[in-house]
Design a protein that fits this description.
The structure is a homotetramer. By secondary structure, chain A is of the alpha+beta class. Chain A has one domain: Hotdog Thioesterase (Thiol Ester Dehydrase, Chain A, Roll), CATH 3.10.129. Helices cover 23% and strands 34% of the residues of chain A. Chain A contains 3 helices and 7 strands. A 5-stranded antiparallel beta sheet of chain A has the order 1-4-5-6-3, covered by helices on one side. A two-stranded antiparallel sheet of chain A has the order 2-7. In chain A, a hairpin with a 5-residue loop joins strand 5 and strand 6. The longest helix of chain A has 15 residues. The model of chain A has no long low-confidence stretch (mean pLDDT 96). Chains A and C meet through helix 1 and strand 3 of A and helix 1 and strand 3 of C. Strand 3 of chain B pairs antiparallel with strand 3 of chain D.
């Protein structure tokens, strides 16, 4: 399995904090996406390149497990790692306190390729993804 | 001036409430948009028809004045009224408590037409807008 | 198992639509929440009553499976059904096209009770929840 | 006038991009807030200190003028500068492309102090703000 990872650091903004003084659970989908896009940029296949390659990659599954809450202005590290790419794109995530390393959240997303012109779901990942993963991520 | 108005009723959702137990001020831009889209649908010129007409209508100005806070699950009426359309599209808004009629927020947005193909700003509203406003809104 | 369900109808707003012309996947966490809050209001235990009872109920797990995309202004029915309540609060969700009934999304959330004063996680749901579920939902 | 400014750099995330391939106009309220909070942290008076001082500072006015659109992954610099503080808190903002310096958006927000216990609006800013501004920002 080629290794593709990315880490992004964020500070929880005021507008993400709910009435219980913690980041509202739905915002972590955004935090995951920031790290996933950073990983995909490393192989030159972020959203604009996806579209140019003729494929959309909708998220078809998303799972989040919340272990500890995140507070206002807390610095978080969001780690994404590629787990599957041959038939679908699966990333796993961990969100940790940037200072202590304590884990707050984990989860995963699954995306599949859809041909933009025909609208057809691809059961095998198109070469434009596979070539990029294998070229960039293996020695 | 042809009269074009719309009212939509919303209930403030939990995910819009901030740590002070009121709707975070930025969410009202969304509430304005719901009423503006409802008004534009009345003349058959909501987002899909805009795009099909060859024009984008970016918001170029937005103003909000907050008089009273909105609370969780409060029912609000968002009222939009067309104020200008010949050279630009200006809507004024009022958000009131749906039960008492007490005013919470007011504001306005201004949009201008941009030719999607050329990217050129239009200093006069295109006929596709003017005809729709004048046909639907005048007796 | 007492039966507790709720259905809410929404129209996908413009500000939830992404560049692929579909509702961005993270927004469905909000749609789930609207139906869950409606269900909890039926037993008199929505957010304000939770807080008054001395317990917070953070979401500790969230899963979403996307079957079909949602489009701008599409009317959706969000259905929530209570699946567990004795030790934790689990709701399952289905989002369908309001007109055709075609299923777009499904998923679940899990919440646990946390004593607001002590911060302690409750491994058994407090009586304030159990009594409300059993009183309202069983004949 | 004491000088209090802050600059924050952001990259426009995918989930802020709308169907016209630009950042949806409502998201700029969040970008303004990031720079305002950074400025307020310089004088030790960000949200947690506001609450501890006994005052909430709701936004009562917000204005945004959009000059050019922001694109996916564009790096933006958000500049906030304090313009009034004696009776109310006014910040002006400019958002520029981080590389070219080209201006995309400008605007302002106005906040007023509200006594959290009594709910009373303060027509003069409380000393806890004035002392912090004058101590930190004047030589």
């Amino acid at each position: 399995m080629p290794e593709l990872t990315a880490d992004v650091t964020i500070e929880v903004p005021f507008h993400d904090i709910d009435v219980m003084e913690v980041a509202w659970h739905g915002h972590f989908v955004k935090y995951f996406e920031l790290a996933r896009c950073a990983a995909l940029r490393k192989i030159g296949y972020d959203y604009p390149q996806m579209r140019d390659s003729g494929y959309a990659w909708p998220v078809v599954e998303c799972y989040l497990k919340y272990v500890r809450p995140a507070r206002y202005h807390q610095r978080l590290t969001v780690h994404a790692v590629l787990r599957e790419y041959e038939n679908r794109l699966r990333f796993d995530y961990e969100i940790r306190d940037a200072a202590s390393g304590e884990r707050l959240t984990k989860g995963y997303t699954v995306q599949v390729a859809v041909d933009i012109t025909s609208g057809e779901l691809q059961f095998v990942s198109p070469d434009c993804l596979i070539a990029r993963v294998e070229k960039t991520c293996t020695a």
